[in-house]
């Protein structure tokens, strides 16, 4: 099968034909990938945001849709023919061994889920079945962008009706945070980004106020909008210390700062911690603490009944051979929404 492989940090992915193992191990599921999203986490892996990568060469990707082709011993939650969402948060089933791929006889590493390939062998607990008539392009978003974005609002920031929310960074996850905040009737919902195209999409998702931080002092603009009341929930998708510190300063005494973006190794924040003792919250999010087997069906039903928008979040489509173009565009911030890698071409 053809796959995109990380062979060197801060370098383009290599596109190559790799060999799959002859048989599936306990708990493994063979999936034909139809669509794979590209998340900022993959950019971080490529760029070494967390430091040295000890598993190179390895496969990437954690958000996709596909069809189950075969299952290994012990698999109970999916079967051949099922349409599925592939996700990185653990769901039902076995935590299987990682697949043994090779290229020219040399091992290519992979985790429990990878999606930048025509086929993939994943752990049973990284796939969730969806209805056979699902829109498979949209379904890929439930692997991370939707479940993380909605989970941040539900589980991390715990936004209530009428609370003031600031979403800093309007990428694929940020746009879904905005949409989820609108679903729970937060007000105002302030989206902040460097790019007008992303802010325009944030407005479609339910943002009530937009701030372009490349041309406007975001801190002062937020103060001007909210006055002395402050922010109830400040959600950061950038991982930048100065923005996190600003959010901590601007939140109410009992406000919450939720960190979704991952900072580069060594990028530490500097805060006055006393407010933490009196009700202010500062916490990191791990995929919105989503539970795939329950949250994916819930959110999917919202889409199928027209309660949320997802198709318009997919603004650019690429083939697997073009994946480095997609990654470069995402890194530059030139794409408004989610980039989708289309395998069925």
Sum this structure up briefly.
Residues 10-341 form the Enoyl reductase (ER) domain. This protein has 345 residues and is of the alpha/beta class. The protein has helices at 40-47, 136-139, 145-156, 172-183, 196-205, 218-226, 241-250, 292-304, 323-332, and strands at 2-6, 14-17, 28-37, 58-59, 64-71, 83-86, 101-103, 106-108, 119-123, 127-130, 165-168, 189-193, 209-212, 231-236, 251-259, 281-284, 314-318, 338-342.
Strand content: 25-35%
Shape: globular
Category by helix and strand content: alpha/beta
> Can you tell me the CATH topology of the largest domain?
Quinone Oxidoreductase, Chain A, domain 1
Poorly predicted ranges: none
Q: State the helix count.
A: 9
Number of domains: 2
List the helices and strands and how they pair.
Elements lengths: L1 E5 L7 E4 L10 E10 L2 H8 L10 E2 L4 E8 L11 E4 L14 E3 L2 E3 L10 E5 L3 E4 L5 H4 L5 H12 L8 E4 L3 H12 L5 E5 L2 H10 L3 E4 L5 H9 L4 E6 L4 H10 E9 L21 E4 L7 H13 L9 E5 L4 H10 L5 E5 L3
Parallel strand pairs: 11-12, 11-14, 12-13, 14-15, 15-16, 17-18
Antiparallel strand pairs: 1-2, 1-4, 3-5, 3-9, 3-18, 5-6, 6-10, 7-8
Helix pairs in contact: 3-4, 3-8, 4-5
Organism: Pseudoduganella ginsengisoli
Family: Belongs to the zinc-containing alcohol dehydrogenase family.
InterPro entries: ADH-like_C, ADH-like_N, ADH_Zn_CS, ER, GroES-like_sf, NAD(P)-bd_dom_sf
Please provide a written account of the structure.
This protein is an alpha/beta fold and 345 residues long. The chain has two domains: 2-143 and 310-342, Medium-chain alcohol dehydrogenases, catalytic domain (Quinone Oxidoreductase, Chain A, domain 1, Alpha-Beta Complex); 146-285, 3-Layer(aba) Sandwich (Rossmann fold). It is built from nine helices and 18 strands. It has helices spanning 40-47, 136-139, 145-156, 172-183, 196-205, 218-226, 241-250, 292-304, 323-332, and strands at residues 2-6, 14-17, 28-37, 58-59, 64-71, 83-86, 101-103, 106-108, 119-123, 127-130, 165-168, 189-193, 209-212, 231-236, 251-259, 281-284, 314-318, 338-342. Strands 3, 5, 6, 9, 10, 17 and 18 form a seven-stranded mixed β-sheet that branches. Strand 17 (314-318), helix 9 and strand 18 form a beta-alpha-beta unit. Helix 3 crosses helix 4 and helix 4 packs parallel to helix 5 (196-205). The longest helix is centred in the last third of the chain and has 13 residues, at 292-304. The radius of gyration is 20 Å and the shape is globular. The relative contact order is 0.16. Its cofactor is Zn(2+). This is Zinc-binding dehydrogenase. InterPro entries: ADH-like_C (IPR013149), ADH-like_N (IPR013154), ADH_Zn_CS (IPR002328), ER (IPR020843), GroES-like_sf (IPR011032), NAD(P)-bd_dom_sf (IPR036291).
